[in-house]
Protein: NB-ARC domain-containing protein
Organism: Actinophytocola xinjiangensis
Amino acid sequence: MSGAAGNVVQAAHIGSVTFTDPGPRPVVPAEAGPPPSAFVNREQQLAVLRERAASARPAHPEVIAVRGMQGVGKTALLRQFAATSRDLFPDGVLSVTFGPQERAPGEAAASLLLGLGVAERHIPSTFARRVALYRSLSADLRLLVLLDDVTDDEQVTALLPNSPGSMVLAAGNRAFEGLYADGALDLPLGALSVDSGVRLLGELCGGGRVERDPAGARDLVAALDGLPLAIRVAGGLLARHRDLPVARLLADLRGGDGTVRATVFAAFDHAYAGLADQPKLLYRTLGAMAGVRFGIEVLAAVSAGTTGAARANLAELVRVGLVEEDGFDSFRLHRMVREHALHRSAEEDDLDTRRTWRRRAVRWWLFGAMAADLAADPDRLRVADPESVRGERAPDVSAAAGLDWLDREHANLLAAMEAAAEEGWHAEVCRLFEALFALYKTRKPLSAWVRAGRLAVDSAVLTGVAETEARCRCLLAKAYQELERYDEADEQLIAARGLVAGGPPRFTASTYDFTGNLCLRRGDDEAALDWFGQALAINRDLGLVRGTALQSMLVGRALGRLGRIDEALDMCAAARDAVTGGPAAVLLPKILTSTGAVLERAGRVEDAEHTLSTAVDLALGDGNTADAADALIVLARLGGAGAAEYRDRAVSLLERMGSPRAARVIVGGA
């Protein structure tokens, strides 16, 4: 008999007998590696994992698919869970890392068998036999199997242990549709919040560095966009260089220099280098274009290719962790990845090419915004010719769908405005802002409204077109009015009226409309009535149905506040009749709210409640939260059993808009 080297005894007649050493005693595998030295803000995910591990399961192991972009902390989560859940897996932890080079399945299966104590010489030669042996050995065990850097669903399904008491954590950069179909749980990981990032930074660098400069630490984490990989690199630098101020590290980062950026970019370079030419080109395109989140359509437009090609190339970027999936057919670039993509584009593409990509992106979002704006409010005054976008987008879009698109793409549209301003495409900046007014006046994200408005006014001045500048100033003034910054609103409107004096009467009427609204908000009802009356006369002379209806309503609102109830109700009724059933019907919630307010002043509570309830239903049906809030405020003033509920609903909508009116409504004012 023979075996490994050991003690050999010679004996007559029988030859030799070899007594081998027994070798190392079997041990419980613990292959996850040590947990991270600092770990924060994944309590929810760890709780989910422990709950699923402890719960009873059918005849198959629990599979959890952990997904997130490169550097977001997937491996750290796997190791932390392995370190804190030994009690749940008495038979140990096995671990395989696939990586961008896509480790061969046979090699992965051999690694698992070695972890289960199979001697290397006893590992079968074929993949099928390795898997069969692995399943036999894992039967009835309670194992935790970690599969990191997974790039394909089959890498997971081929290596599932044959035990319902086991759990498999598969981590990768993309969604695992095949695993979900088989019952796997999707567990996405995102970047850290600023607070959590600061905690991580403090644990890494120690020495009270964060406590001595909390503002600098928060700025540093924000600049790193909460990416754990980048925060760990920064924390390591601060730990090694005790005399390095946080502010200096932040300045280096913002200046495009320093070890943090270089280290993180090196990781991205590794992923980029393994791509084919077309996915590389798409990656550089993403860096050069405007926008925060993006879909297949805009990628195809910017790259001047087909949606099929864009989808295929994007799948490669997701696979290597450079792009994150953000929902169905929706994707995003982490801030530092975008900077890396811009860096690669600057290295490999000329300026004209990058500008072409950016112009295509701005144009795509501009036409989308204008089409959505047309759907939301077809007949509103616009400087830009709305007919220029007909046919660019599907015409059968509802008002609510148009508003939802503007809301969903809002961050991208702001980014497109900023990109256009940087490039000197000032007319596009103004057109984007004008298109966003449909969203701003109905949902009132006030901070963003002011930011966009200031940018648009600056660009409008540079266009040299009086009507464009006047329009942008009026729309910005409306935002200031909603924020109760009345002097700033008045300043914009004075300039706007001067710009269009003696010009096209429709634009003159519009400046009167905005001025009257400001007077009404300030409580100067007589002045408001005068401005609205002048605007109404101009719209009647021009034969404009929408403008006449809107100004009739506003005249009625001012008359009601002056106590001229019958005249007010007549004007509101005329406005309602003019828009019912036509393209200007989007004004109905506003007209009914004004009517309800007049009925309230007349003491006709039941009529007011019915009218205002209809206004709320219509407004919410169109996605118009601003008009809904206005109607709810008047409903709350009527009193009765539902007053508190109406007030709470109004406050919720106003707080979402960032309106200072919310505080007054809470205490019973308007």
Notes: The mean pLDDT is 85. The CA atoms of residues 596 and 611 lie 6 Å apart. The first helix runs from residue 43 to 54. The radius of gyration is 33 Å.
